């Protein structure tokens, strides 16, 4: 888990360094796009839950984690870009700088101990039957 956190931290700064590559470089596009689609959301999920996947997660759990991570990443990226646009300060490099900083802080803050009384988010199991598991016909 520590390697994952440090990988998230380093990836933001690698994406920022990739902006020094030529604008039409495929490496620049791939590195920056991968960072924007994965890392801010992954850092936020780690900050909120303390883990990426539930211990009992199967293939559906992995897909769910990927979708949630991608959606949160895009949401954070849009919020940062909107804030910079509203402040008349938007440049792609500046947006990546802010996102790399936020991602680093979120990834490293997830390792800090919580103050007493503040717990991590843990989903409550539902009493409803899962999809595809109809218990009504059992006797």
UniProtKB/TrEMBL annotation:
Residues that span the membrane, as ranges: 30-53, 65-87, 93-112
Keywords, comma-separated and alphabetical: Membrane, Transmembrane, Transmembrane helix
Superkingdom, natural source: Bacteria
Protein's recorded name: Uncharacterized protein
Keyword Membrane applies: yes
Span list, region Disordered: 119-139
């Amino acid at each position: 888990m520590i390697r994952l956190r440090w990988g998230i931290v380093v990836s933001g700064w690698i994406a920022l360094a990739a902006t020094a590559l030529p604008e039409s470089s495929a490496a620049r596009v791939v590195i920056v796009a991968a960072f924007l689609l994965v890392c801010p959301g992954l850092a936020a999920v780690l900050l909120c839950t303390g883990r990426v996947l539930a211990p009992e997660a199967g293939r559906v759990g992995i897909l769910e984690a990927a979708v949630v991570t991608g959606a949160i990443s895009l949401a954070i990226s849009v919020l940062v870009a909107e804030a910079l646009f509203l402040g008349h300060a938007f440049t792609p490099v500046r947006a990546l700088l802010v996102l790399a900083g936020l991602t680093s802080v979120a990834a490293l803050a997830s390792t800090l101990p919580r103050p007493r009384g503040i717990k991590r988010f843990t989903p409550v199991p539902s009493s409803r039957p899962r999809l595809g598991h109809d218990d009504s016909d059992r006797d």
